[in-house]
């Protein structure tokens, strides 16, 4: 993995989970868990599980007999997930690199990944690993975001950075939205040896209760925190500016904010 992914440290995981999670991740996580449940798996592997937002929905959606192994390269993110699901014997957490999994061949019925592929330096290697650990006929399900323009809150963040740091604006917020061409991804998974690849657009309007809280989460809950610090920026001031720009675009709270993602599913041979 790259240094950006490993930058989810300190208080970033908690801010990511509590301030960003309910607004931009939770609804898509429920959709992901529903897709997994519809496949009636016995054993599920989640890669790039982060703080367990999808994992919690998997635990709610899957039967008592289903085993869930949630993995992430970043241990501080996984610790937040462990704390949320402590006591659920069906769920196990393990630090793991999606590009170099330590599991035996063909041991999972479903492998899922929500919004992780844009952080994999070698996606073909990650596809190969997912295919290897799936049983023949098992399913790989993952999601990516649409473009910055299709998720306009991110465009607002990028514009705010550009206005504030004109000579060298932070660029992290472009990364999560960089895999927005479904045809490219469908071609990649076919090349990796999966068959019957499917694509579905997922659009949602998230209701934001507090733009102040959400904006602060964006400043304190992602590696953009370090980019702003390196440039001598004030996270609280930037968050206040962001919140006002969000209101100017989406209206006063509670406000509806559009999100767009792509869901992919395919079968292992």
* CATH uppermost class of the domain at 5-148 and 173-205 and 259-267: Alpha Beta
Portion of residues within helices:
40-55%
Structural class: alpha/beta
Q: What is the strand content?
A: 15-25%
Number of strands: 7
Question: Unreliable segments (pLDDT under 50, ≥5 consecutive)?
Answer: 1-6
Overall shape: it is globular
Gross CATH architecture of the domain at 5-148 and 173-205 and 259-267: 3-Layer(aba) Sandwich
Can you identify the CATH superfamily of the domain at 5-148 and 173-205 and 259-267? Answer: Vaccinia Virus protein VP39
N-to-C order of helices and strands: HEHEHEEHEHHEHHHE
Strand order of the largest sheet: 3-2-1-4-5-7-6
CATH fold assignment of the domain at 5-148 and 173-205 and 259-267: Rossmann fold
The gyration radius over C-alpha positions equals 18 Å
Q: Calculate the terminal CA-CA distance, rounded to whole Å.
A: 26 Å
The chain-level mean pLDDT equals 95
The biggest beta sheet is recorded as: 7 strands, mixed
Number of helices: 9
Describe this structure in words.
The longest helix has 27 residues, at 12-38. The protein is 42% helix and 23% strand. The chain has 269 residues and is an alpha/beta fold. A 7-stranded mixed sheet has the order 3-2-1-4-5-7-6. The chain has a domain at 5-148 and 173-205 and 259-267: 3-Layer(aba) Sandwich (Rossmann fold), CATH 3.40.50.150.
